Fold this protein.
Amino acid sequence: MSDLFAALSDDERALLAPAPAPKAADAMKAVLTDARFSDPDWIFERKLDGIRCIAIRSGKRVRLLSRNDLSLNARYPELATALEAEACDRFAIDGEVVAFDGAQTSFARLAARGHHSVPVFLYAFDILWLDGQDVRDLPLRGAQTATHHVGIRPHRLHCLPHVECRTSLKSKLLH
């Protein structure tokens, strides 16, 4: 496999730290605030209506974990199978399992899986560990650059697009 970190700058590469694969989800959680701000170092991502999932692969098998460290493999076997078929075999991705109702994510549709077949997808919004390296100290844009180079096919995994934080953010969100 080629150098997964080739697209990173030298400064970003210096932030990589050798580490074993994560054993638990250890997911960053959203924090509610009334404060409004605009900062060019922040990005905003779309809120998805699904279930948080950390996908950890170190070798042949993938472990899908909820934010509370419960196994999701039996619930979403098609995601585990798709991730196990990929060439990259050492990663930990933080994302959201979603189902769609038209163009919108739908938790109700996701919950209906127990009653009928509903296709699901994993939307990645961060990569935590890659090819033996803890990448959490990378700026999010650098981590997303590395995520795009993992080589995972988009039939089940998608990267979540983001919006740059600018003063015009309000106009982007409202239109």
Observations:
- The helical segments are 10-13, 77-84, 107-111, 140-148, 169-174.
- Confidence is low (pLDDT under 50) at residues 163-175.
- The CA atoms of residues 27 and 80 lie 19 Å apart.
